[in-house]
Amino acid sequence: MANKASAATGARIVGQRYMRSKRRENPDGRMPLMEHLRELRNRLVKCILVIALGMTIALIYSNPTLQFVMRPFCSATINGHSGCHLYGDQLVVNGVFDPLFIRIKIAFFIALIGTCPVWLYQLWAFIAPGLYSREKKWAYLFTGTAVPLFIGGAFLAYYVMSRGLHYLLGLAPHGVAVLPSFDTYLGYFTGMLLGFGLAFELPLVLGILNVAGILTHERFRKWRKGLIFGAFVFAGMVNPSPDPWTMLIFGGLCVALVEVAEVFIFFNDKRRARLSPDPYEGLADDELSPLPPPERVDADNSLN
To answer: Is the pTM of this model over 0.70?
Structure first.
Protein backbone atom coordinates (compact mmCIF):
# COMPACT_ATOMS: atom_id res chain seq x y z
CA MET A 1 0.00 0.00 0.00
CA ALA A 2 2.87 2.35 0.80
CA ASN A 3 4.39 1.71 -2.64
CA LYS A 4 1.08 2.51 -4.33
CA ALA A 5 0.71 5.75 -2.35
CA SER A 6 4.28 6.79 -3.16
CA ALA A 7 3.71 5.96 -6.85
CA ALA A 8 0.54 8.10 -6.94
CA THR A 9 2.37 10.96 -5.23
CA GLY A 10 5.23 10.69 -7.71
CA ALA A 11 2.84 10.70 -10.69
CA ARG A 12 1.10 13.79 -9.34
CA ILE A 13 4.42 15.60 -8.89
CA VAL A 14 5.48 14.69 -12.43
CA GLY A 15 2.16 15.94 -13.79
CA GLN A 16 2.47 19.24 -11.92
CA ARG A 17 6.01 19.74 -13.22
CA TYR A 18 4.84 19.01 -16.76
CA MET A 19 2.02 21.55 -16.53
CA ARG A 20 4.43 24.09 -15.01
CA SER A 21 6.85 23.63 -17.88
CA LYS A 22 3.99 24.05 -20.37
CA ARG A 23 2.99 27.32 -18.70
CA ARG A 24 6.56 28.57 -18.88
CA GLU A 25 6.69 27.75 -22.58
CA ASN A 26 3.35 29.48 -23.23
CA PRO A 27 2.53 31.75 -20.26
CA ASP A 28 -0.33 33.57 -22.01
CA GLY A 29 -2.03 30.35 -23.17
CA ARG A 30 -1.94 31.49 -26.77
CA MET A 31 -2.94 29.19 -29.61
CA PRO A 32 -2.35 29.45 -33.35
CA LEU A 33 -5.29 30.41 -35.53
CA MET A 34 -5.64 26.91 -36.97
CA GLU A 35 -5.77 25.42 -33.45
CA HIS A 36 -8.60 27.83 -32.58
CA LEU A 37 -10.48 26.83 -35.71
CA ARG A 38 -10.01 23.11 -34.96
CA GLU A 39 -11.28 23.57 -31.41
CA LEU A 40 -14.26 25.57 -32.69
CA ARG A 41 -15.02 22.85 -35.22
CA ASN A 42 -14.86 20.10 -32.58
CA ARG A 43 -17.19 21.96 -30.23
CA LEU A 44 -19.65 22.76 -33.02
CA VAL A 45 -19.73 19.09 -33.99
CA LYS A 46 -20.48 18.14 -30.38
CA CYS A 47 -23.31 20.70 -30.22
CA ILE A 48 -24.82 19.46 -33.49
CA LEU A 49 -24.67 15.84 -32.37
CA VAL A 50 -26.31 16.61 -29.03
CA ILE A 51 -29.08 18.66 -30.66
CA ALA A 52 -29.64 15.88 -33.22
CA LEU A 53 -29.95 13.37 -30.37
CA GLY A 54 -32.44 15.65 -28.62
CA MET A 55 -34.46 15.99 -31.83
CA THR A 56 -34.56 12.20 -32.18
CA ILE A 57 -35.92 11.81 -28.66
CA ALA A 58 -38.46 14.61 -29.23
CA LEU A 59 -39.63 12.97 -32.47
CA ILE A 60 -40.13 9.67 -30.66
CA TYR A 61 -42.39 11.46 -28.16
CA SER A 62 -43.88 13.84 -30.73
CA ASN A 63 -47.50 13.33 -29.70
CA PRO A 64 -47.03 14.62 -26.11
CA THR A 65 -44.99 17.58 -27.37
CA LEU A 66 -47.70 18.43 -29.90
CA GLN A 67 -50.33 18.39 -27.16
CA PHE A 68 -48.12 20.65 -25.04
CA VAL A 69 -47.71 23.17 -27.86
CA MET A 70 -51.41 23.11 -28.81
CA ARG A 71 -52.73 23.51 -25.26
CA PRO A 72 -52.86 27.38 -25.26
CA PHE A 73 -54.76 27.37 -28.56
CA CYS A 74 -57.21 24.71 -27.44
CA SER A 75 -57.79 26.58 -24.16
CA ALA A 76 -58.80 29.78 -26.00
CA THR A 77 -62.47 30.36 -26.83
CA ILE A 78 -62.81 30.75 -30.61
CA ASN A 79 -66.20 31.23 -32.28
CA GLY A 80 -67.84 30.32 -29.00
CA HIS A 81 -66.05 26.95 -28.81
CA SER A 82 -62.88 25.66 -27.16
CA GLY A 83 -61.07 22.38 -26.90
CA CYS A 84 -60.09 21.84 -30.58
CA HIS A 85 -63.05 19.52 -31.18
CA LEU A 86 -65.17 21.28 -33.81
CA TYR A 87 -64.41 22.62 -37.25
CA GLY A 88 -63.59 26.30 -36.82
CA ASP A 89 -61.72 26.05 -33.54
CA GLN A 90 -59.02 23.70 -34.87
CA LEU A 91 -55.65 24.34 -36.47
CA VAL A 92 -55.33 23.44 -40.14
CA VAL A 93 -52.50 22.36 -42.45
CA ASN A 94 -52.41 23.16 -46.15
CA GLY A 95 -49.63 21.02 -47.61
CA VAL A 96 -48.92 17.33 -47.89
CA PHE A 97 -45.58 17.59 -46.09
CA ASP A 98 -46.73 20.16 -43.51
CA PRO A 99 -47.50 17.59 -40.77
CA LEU A 100 -43.96 16.20 -41.08
CA PHE A 101 -42.32 19.64 -41.14
CA ILE A 102 -44.37 20.74 -38.13
CA ARG A 103 -43.15 17.79 -36.08
CA ILE A 104 -39.55 18.49 -37.13
CA LYS A 105 -39.83 22.17 -36.16
CA ILE A 106 -41.30 21.36 -32.77
CA ALA A 107 -38.66 18.68 -32.18
CA PHE A 108 -35.89 21.16 -33.03
CA PHE A 109 -37.38 23.78 -30.71
CA ILE A 110 -37.70 21.31 -27.84
CA ALA A 111 -34.19 19.92 -28.44
CA LEU A 112 -32.66 23.41 -28.54
CA ILE A 113 -34.14 24.23 -25.14
CA GLY A 114 -33.60 20.79 -23.59
CA THR A 115 -29.93 20.55 -24.59
CA CYS A 116 -29.05 24.16 -23.73
CA PRO A 117 -26.83 23.13 -20.76
CA VAL A 118 -24.63 21.10 -23.14
CA TRP A 119 -24.18 23.63 -25.95
CA LEU A 120 -23.89 26.50 -23.48
CA TYR A 121 -21.08 24.58 -21.77
CA GLN A 122 -19.36 24.05 -25.14
CA LEU A 123 -19.59 27.76 -25.84
CA TRP A 124 -18.28 28.54 -22.37
CA ALA A 125 -15.38 26.08 -22.72
CA PHE A 126 -14.37 27.80 -25.97
CA ILE A 127 -14.26 31.35 -24.60
CA ALA A 128 -13.23 30.64 -20.98
CA PRO A 129 -9.45 30.32 -21.61
CA GLY A 130 -9.37 33.95 -22.73
CA LEU A 131 -11.03 35.29 -19.57
CA TYR A 132 -9.49 36.38 -16.28
CA SER A 133 -10.56 34.76 -13.02
CA ARG A 134 -12.69 37.80 -12.05
CA GLU A 135 -14.42 37.75 -15.44
CA LYS A 136 -15.10 34.02 -15.06
CA LYS A 137 -16.74 34.64 -11.67
CA TRP A 138 -19.13 37.22 -13.11
CA ALA A 139 -19.81 35.01 -16.14
CA TYR A 140 -20.81 32.11 -13.88
CA LEU A 141 -23.15 34.40 -11.93
CA PHE A 142 -24.82 35.91 -14.97
CA THR A 143 -25.19 32.58 -16.76
CA GLY A 144 -26.75 31.00 -13.68
CA THR A 145 -29.17 33.93 -13.42
CA ALA A 146 -30.13 34.15 -17.11
CA VAL A 147 -31.62 30.65 -17.33
CA PRO A 148 -34.14 30.97 -14.43
CA LEU A 149 -35.19 34.44 -15.61
CA PHE A 150 -35.82 33.24 -19.16
CA ILE A 151 -37.75 30.19 -17.93
CA GLY A 152 -39.88 32.41 -15.69
CA GLY A 153 -40.78 34.70 -18.59
CA ALA A 154 -41.56 31.78 -20.91
CA PHE A 155 -43.70 30.15 -18.18
CA LEU A 156 -45.76 33.34 -17.82
CA ALA A 157 -46.15 33.64 -21.60
CA TYR A 158 -47.41 30.06 -21.84
CA TYR A 159 -50.26 30.75 -19.42
CA VAL A 160 -51.37 34.13 -20.80
CA MET A 161 -51.13 33.10 -24.45
CA SER A 162 -54.74 31.87 -24.64
CA ARG A 163 -56.04 35.35 -23.67
CA GLY A 164 -54.17 36.91 -26.56
CA LEU A 165 -55.43 34.28 -28.99
CA HIS A 166 -59.01 34.81 -27.85
CA TYR A 167 -58.72 38.55 -28.50
CA LEU A 168 -56.82 38.38 -31.82
CA LEU A 169 -58.97 35.70 -33.41
CA GLY A 170 -62.10 37.39 -32.10
CA LEU A 171 -61.35 40.46 -34.26
CA ALA A 172 -62.51 38.61 -37.37
CA PRO A 173 -65.69 40.14 -38.88
CA HIS A 174 -68.99 38.35 -38.58
CA GLY A 175 -69.41 35.66 -41.19
CA VAL A 176 -65.66 35.13 -41.69
CA ALA A 177 -64.38 31.64 -40.86
CA VAL A 178 -61.27 31.67 -38.68
CA LEU A 179 -58.97 28.84 -39.80
CA PRO A 180 -55.43 29.58 -38.58
CA SER A 181 -52.69 27.36 -39.90
CA PHE A 182 -50.48 25.37 -37.57
CA ASP A 183 -47.37 27.04 -38.98
CA THR A 184 -48.72 30.51 -38.19
CA TYR A 185 -49.67 29.47 -34.68
CA LEU A 186 -46.22 27.95 -34.13
CA GLY A 187 -44.62 31.28 -35.05
CA TYR A 188 -46.91 33.04 -32.55
CA PHE A 189 -46.09 30.44 -29.89
CA THR A 190 -42.31 30.74 -30.22
CA GLY A 191 -42.48 34.54 -30.54
CA MET A 192 -44.42 34.88 -27.29
CA LEU A 193 -42.05 32.60 -25.40
CA LEU A 194 -38.98 34.40 -26.70
CA GLY A 195 -40.49 37.86 -26.15
CA PHE A 196 -41.48 37.26 -22.53
CA GLY A 197 -38.26 35.35 -21.81
CA LEU A 198 -36.04 38.13 -23.16
CA ALA A 199 -38.09 40.77 -21.31
CA PHE A 200 -37.23 39.06 -18.04
CA GLU A 201 -33.52 39.42 -18.90
CA LEU A 202 -33.73 43.21 -18.36
CA PRO A 203 -32.19 43.17 -14.83
CA LEU A 204 -29.38 40.98 -16.13
CA VAL A 205 -28.59 43.51 -18.88
CA LEU A 206 -28.59 46.33 -16.32
CA GLY A 207 -26.25 44.33 -14.07
CA ILE A 208 -23.83 43.66 -16.93
CA LEU A 209 -23.77 47.37 -17.79
CA ASN A 210 -22.97 48.17 -14.15
CA VAL A 211 -20.17 45.61 -13.92
CA ALA A 212 -18.72 47.00 -17.15
CA GLY A 213 -18.69 50.46 -15.58
CA ILE A 214 -21.21 51.96 -18.00
CA LEU A 215 -24.23 52.27 -15.68
CA THR A 216 -23.72 53.64 -12.17
CA HIS A 217 -26.32 53.91 -9.42
CA GLU A 218 -26.43 57.70 -9.76
CA ARG A 219 -27.17 57.40 -13.46
CA PHE A 220 -29.70 54.63 -12.76
CA ARG A 221 -31.61 56.96 -10.41
CA LYS A 222 -31.94 59.47 -13.25
CA TRP A 223 -33.23 56.76 -15.60
CA ARG A 224 -35.63 55.08 -13.14
CA LYS A 225 -38.81 56.84 -14.27
CA GLY A 226 -38.02 56.22 -17.93
CA LEU A 227 -37.28 52.55 -17.26
CA ILE A 228 -40.54 52.03 -15.35
CA PHE A 229 -42.52 53.78 -18.09
CA GLY A 230 -40.74 51.74 -20.77
CA ALA A 231 -41.47 48.50 -18.88
CA PHE A 232 -45.23 49.17 -18.94
CA VAL A 233 -45.12 50.27 -22.59
CA PHE A 234 -43.30 47.07 -23.51
CA ALA A 235 -45.79 45.02 -21.47
CA GLY A 236 -48.64 46.59 -23.43
CA MET A 237 -46.94 45.92 -26.77
CA VAL A 238 -46.02 42.29 -26.06
CA ASN A 239 -49.36 41.39 -24.51
CA PRO A 240 -51.91 41.36 -27.35
CA SER A 241 -54.88 41.02 -25.02
CA PRO A 242 -56.72 44.27 -24.14
CA ASP A 243 -57.18 42.97 -20.60
CA PRO A 244 -55.51 45.59 -18.34
CA TRP A 245 -54.88 43.08 -15.56
CA THR A 246 -52.52 40.99 -17.67
CA MET A 247 -50.58 44.08 -18.71
CA LEU A 248 -50.39 45.30 -15.11
CA ILE A 249 -49.17 41.92 -13.86
CA PHE A 250 -46.53 41.66 -16.57
CA GLY A 251 -45.47 45.30 -16.21
CA GLY A 252 -45.38 44.99 -12.42
CA LEU A 253 -43.09 41.96 -12.67
CA CYS A 254 -40.77 43.85 -15.02
CA VAL A 255 -40.68 46.80 -12.60
CA ALA A 256 -39.94 44.46 -9.68
CA LEU A 257 -37.03 42.99 -11.64
CA VAL A 258 -35.75 46.51 -12.40
CA GLU A 259 -35.83 47.31 -8.67
CA VAL A 260 -33.88 44.12 -7.94
CA ALA A 261 -31.32 45.27 -10.48
CA GLU A 262 -31.13 48.64 -8.71
CA VAL A 263 -30.33 46.91 -5.40
CA PHE A 264 -27.54 44.96 -7.08
CA ILE A 265 -26.16 48.12 -8.73
CA PHE A 266 -26.26 50.00 -5.41
CA PHE A 267 -24.31 47.38 -3.47
CA ASN A 268 -21.89 46.77 -6.33
CA ASP A 269 -21.07 50.49 -6.48
CA LYS A 270 -20.56 50.50 -2.70
CA ARG A 271 -18.23 47.50 -2.97
CA ARG A 272 -16.31 49.10 -5.81
CA ALA A 273 -15.88 52.34 -3.85
CA ARG A 274 -14.71 50.39 -0.79
CA LEU A 275 -12.16 48.38 -2.75
CA SER A 276 -10.75 51.34 -4.68
CA PRO A 277 -7.46 52.32 -2.96
CA ASP A 278 -7.01 55.81 -1.53
CA PRO A 279 -3.58 57.14 -2.59
CA TYR A 280 -3.20 59.06 0.70
CA GLU A 281 -4.44 56.25 2.99
CA GLY A 282 -1.87 55.01 5.52
CA LEU A 283 0.45 58.01 5.23
CA ALA A 284 1.36 60.18 8.21
CA ASP A 285 0.79 63.90 8.18
CA ASP A 286 4.49 64.66 7.79
CA GLU A 287 4.75 62.21 4.86
CA LEU A 288 2.13 64.02 2.82
CA SER A 289 3.74 66.34 0.33
CA PRO A 290 2.58 69.86 1.17
CA LEU A 291 1.15 72.07 -1.49
CA PRO A 292 3.59 74.61 -2.87
CA PRO A 293 3.11 78.10 -1.38
CA PRO A 294 1.46 80.63 -3.63
CA GLU A 295 3.78 82.95 -5.44
CA ARG A 296 4.25 86.27 -3.75
CA VAL A 297 3.58 89.24 -5.96
CA ASP A 298 5.44 92.41 -5.11
CA ALA A 299 3.12 95.36 -5.33
CA ASP A 300 5.90 97.70 -6.48
CA ASN A 301 7.05 95.32 -9.23
CA SER A 302 3.48 94.74 -10.34
CA LEU A 303 3.03 98.44 -10.86
CA ASN A 304 6.11 98.55 -13.03
So the answer is: no
* Cα separation, 291 vs 83, whole angstroms: 84
Residue 261 one-letter amino acid:
A
- pLDDT at residue 175 in the model: 74
CB-CB neighbours of 117 under 10 Å: 10
Q: Please report the pLDDT score of residue 51 as a whole number.
A: 92
Which range is most confident: 134-143, 170-179, 224-233? Answer: 224-233
Report the DSSP beta bridge partners of residue 181.
Answer: 92
Question: How remote is the C-alpha of 135 from its chain's centroid?
Answer: 17
Question: If we measure between CA atoms, which residue out of 227, 280, 233, 215 comes closest to residue 255?
Answer: 227
Tell me the CA end-to-end span of the chain in Å, nearest whole number: 100
